[in-house]
Amino acid sequence: MRKGIYILPNSLTMCGMFAGFYAILAALKGDYIPAAWAIMIAVVFDGLDGWLARLTSSTTRFGIELDSLSDLVSFGVAPAVILYKWSLMNFGRIGWAAAFLFVACGALRLARYNVQMGSTEKKSFTGMPIPAAASIVAATVIFYQEMNWSSPKNAFILFLAFVLSILMVSTLRFHGAKELDFKKRKPFWILVAIAVVFAIMIMHPEIALFVFAMIYLTAGIIENSYIYYKKFKNLLVTEGKQ
């Protein structure tokens, strides 16, 4: 700390924390759509601060700890408050237990990430990243509100809260933006795919965000199920040869 801190990346981290804090206040007032969009904005700041820190070689232990605290507020507490106020409070004790589990698993996910950083999490993530879980919550809220679907005592929302909590602390493999290496040449179709994604987002952002969120969730589960199936099959083949 005597050497000072890097202002720009840490300022972006604080912006993300502010967005998460605003999401909590908006949710408490019943403004669920602004709260959900605030989480999405926090996700953008979370990606920018890490990218900028790596680009400028300004990654520090202070920045890592601040980023984790910001993530817990923006992607742990804020989505849990939104879920509880929006739907889970109608389930009574089970509802607040699900909301607390989301926060607790998010905190455990962040702690494990900090411990494993630079070792097991060089590329893919071990467990669903907490920003991804928060994005799925936000996208679901935005989609439901846009479609004018009723959220009180919705069993799917309760189930989703428990599933996301478990996935965050699981050992399943999930992919993230850090696996993309923009320095290397990519096939032309990737640029076309990015253009298509942006076009869809502009036309129907509420629906597109929910669809992409569900694709990410289901694709991760299917991929890991296939990985475990292959491991189990290879184990049976090995035991059969013995």
Topology:
Elements: H1 7-28, H2 32-55, H3 61-86, H4 93-116, E1 125-126, H5 130-147, H6 155-169, E2 173-174, H7 188-203, H8 205-241
Antiparallel strand pairs: 1-2
Question: If you had to describe this structure to a student in words, what would you say it looks like?
Answer:
Helix 2 (32-55) packs antiparallel against helix 5 and helix 4 packs parallel to helix 6. The chain has one domain: Four Helix Bundle (Hemerythrin (Met), subunit A) (Up-down Bundle). The chain is an all-alpha fold. The model has no long low-confidence stretch (mean pLDDT 86). 75% of the residues lie in helices and 2% in strands. It has a two-stranded antiparallel sheet. It has eight helices and two strands; from the N terminus they run ααααβααβαα.
Series of H and E elements: HHHHEHHEHH
Residues in helix, %: over 70%
Q: Distance between the terminal alpha carbons, to the nearest Å? A: 59 Å
Strand content: under 5%
Full CATH superfamily name: CDP-alcohol phosphotransferase transmembrane (TM) domain
Shape: globular
Instruction: Using the coordinates above, name the CATH class.
Output: Mainly Alpha
Q: Determine the CATH topology.
A: Four Helix Bundle (Hemerythrin (Met), subunit A)
